[in-house]
Structures are given as C-alpha cells and as structure tokens.
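Sanity check

After download, print the first record. It should look like this:
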Amino acid sequence: MASLSTKHILGIKYLKKEDIELIMETASYFKEVINRPIKKVPSLRDITIANLFFENSTRTRISFELAEKRLSADVVNFSASASSVSKGETLLDTVRNILSMKVDMVVMRHPLQGAPFFLSNHIDANIINAGDGTHEHPTQALLDLYSMIEKVGGVEGKKIAIIGDVRHSRVALSNIFCLVKMGARVKLCGPPTLIPKNIQSLGVEVDHDLRRTLEWADVANVLRIQMERQNIRYFPSLREYSLYYGVNKKLLDSLDSEVVIMHPGPMNRGVEISSDVADSQQSIILHQVENGVAVRMAILFLLAPHKS
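Expected structure tokens:
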C-alpha cells in the first residue's frame, strides 16, 4: 500500500507533491464510499482518535468526527473550555493524560502558531493540524484542492485568486503552499493592509483591484473577514470593504467569463460575499463541505498506524 512521506499533517509546507497526489487519489475512493447507501467502512477499527479543539470550531470538528466514524474509529472529543486547561493545566500535560488512555491519533486546533509542531516533538501519536493560529490549516487547503480538481479538471496552469483577509487567514497560507506546489498560478487580492508584505516571495502575484483579479481568474476563493483576529482597524468599515472587495452577482455577471466561486466558511454574507453569489450555480461551497469528509477520511486512513 502506498504511504505518505510523513507521520503527521502539520502543514502543507511539509508535504511533498507526491503526498498531495496520494491524498487526492485516496479521497476519490472515499468520496465514492460516502455516497453509498452504507457509508461506513472498517478501515480504522481498533484505532482511537482524540479531537482536541482549544479553539471554537463547528464545520472542521464535525467534518473530522464524521470522517472518523465513517472509518469505524473510536472517537474522543475534547473541548478546552470544559477541561483542566481552564484550571491552568499545560498543553503537554493535557495531551499526555489523553495519550495515557491509549490514543493513537490526535486532531488538534489551537490558537497558537506551531502548537501541533511542538506536540509532534514530544509525543508518539500521529498528529493532524486542524488549524493553528494564523499559521496553517492544511486539511482545508487539501479539500479546496480536491474541489477545484473536481470542478476544473486539475489546477496545473490554472489561475486561482485568493480574495480578502489574507493577513489573518491560515487557510490562505495553506492554499498558497498547496496550489503553488501543484503548479497553479495564484493571485492575492484585497486591501493593501490585509495583504502581508513580501508575500510575493511565496511565488504568488498581488493585485488590489477586485474586478481585474476576477477577470483574470478561473477560480476565486473568497476569504472571511476575521474581525476577531484584528486588534486594529485595517479598513474604515465593513460597508466600505464590501463596496470595494465584496463579491456580488452584479459584478460576476459583468465579467467576460464565468469564475468558479469558493469560500472556506463561515461566510459573512453581505460583506465579502453576497447571498446570491454564495447560493448561485457558480458556487461550489457546499461541494467543499461534502469533499471535506472524503479528504479527511483519506488523511486519517493514510496516517493511521494500521494494526495487525
């Protein structure tokens, strides 16, 4: 059986192109599985997975839990707000206590950058990064890639726009690493205050004009404005942001060609994206959600210690 070159998924930065291709291939198999009448397979029977979410999450946590249960794994859910972390216990002590219960894999979301990497150096379990601070969100980038491949038939040479709050988005960074690695052309678009300086060093272009960017693009991945991560004002108001960088139906209909619209969620409808775009035929947002389960099943299956 083919295997990944790593025992963890800490970030797209650490994956080889061959790893990504293997995940895509395996996800196609599991996409077929989850569309069967009986959606469960015994692939990870006797494997115990702990979902450690130190930060609020709905879609990612549910997607991982569903993927784990579809693979017949035993699942332990952990919430920091209802745990000893709220009493001052350290991250390492928390995880060691959980691992003493014979957990094989850890899926972790944490508000601090590098937390999954830190853990990978101190514990034996396989770790999947479900988002660390503003650093990376690798499984989101992989499901985005799978959704693009499904819609436009591969990304090599395709023009992909990432629009919005790039500065605070871990999704953006993982997407950049993933798309550049797979041969796509990537352009970032947003207010100058929300595009990090020198980000062109990652092999991307930058354009602050939304219409020009959409005219150029085959696919547009629209990012949420992350107000909770902004400790200063990066633009005058949400109304003004929407006026200059909101993707709406009138704008899309005025373009020379049709652009595929994506969004990692949750959406601020009426800010970065209008409802008539989010719910339109051009949008593949719900396909991203569905594909998230298949891609996460593939990652869990490929990383899991297969017991004899």
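If your output differs, re-run the checksum step. Summary of this record's structure: The first strand starts at residue 48 and ends at 53.
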